[in-house]
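pinging the channel bc i need a second pair of eyes. not urgent but kinda urgent?? the chain im working w is below, pasted from the shared doc
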Amino acid sequence: MNGGPTARRGGALLLALLLVALAGAAVAGFALRDWLPPLASSHGAGVDRTIRYILAATGAIFILGHLTLAFCVWRFREGGAGGYRPVGPRAEWLWALGPVALMTVVSEVGVLWIGMPVWAEVYGEPPAGALEVEVVGKQFEWLVRYPGKDGVPGRTDPRMVHDARNPLGLDRGDPAARDDVVLRGELHLDAGRDTVVRLRSHDVLHSFSLPLLRVKQDVVPGLAIPTRFRPTREGSFEIACAELCGLGHYRMRGTAVVHPAGEFEAWLAAQPGWFE
């Protein structure tokens, strides 16, 4: 560093203070407000706990790292009282392996300990009486299907897909398909009732996202992927596609309507089947 001892001392102090200020600003930015959107599902509390744990753990490492840097800048500045002293191989191994062990505990053990109960809620066996609904992603909309009055979803055939007349390719020759309810861009749910959404894609990779319900699941072509949640708030919530899926990705959205407890069945009974 150019300049005399006073200038070097001032530069080191300024850099050390800048590192401390940066750590403090980051803490203030995350601590002074809640960045998570309002919660509208039962399992979402566990998702939020996992997010907050990761923020707290990485934040602590960030702060510790900046304070260590600030200490080193000041302690080992040119002309300061500190100086370089070689260490032995054992100390080098400890300094190399210690951070690896710490990050393994933080990123694997901690996340699994907090996140596994949530995983069981989302992907575990659904309880009896759960609402089952199929959601199909296609460029650039969401298609939703409910079994009709017979409670049995009908057969589908990709060769029968027609964007206007039969967007899901329902087999008209299958009696179970005649009363299936098909909606474009609308998902209707029952407040307080476990829901299993079975996701399929007609074309490319999509991602089914309900941010306020803390639901996000990739939709992979060729697979039927279930995800489970329980809405806890009535109202309308945005369905988004969280995976870039083409030029019209920005307009691939829909609405999830959570009906008050007891009203969903009446709504579903009033819906006509696609071929009725």
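so Residues 131-269 form a domain with the Immunoglobulin-like fold (CATH 2.60.40.420). and The CA atoms of residues 103 and 109 lie 9 Å apart. — does that match what u expected or am i reading it wrong
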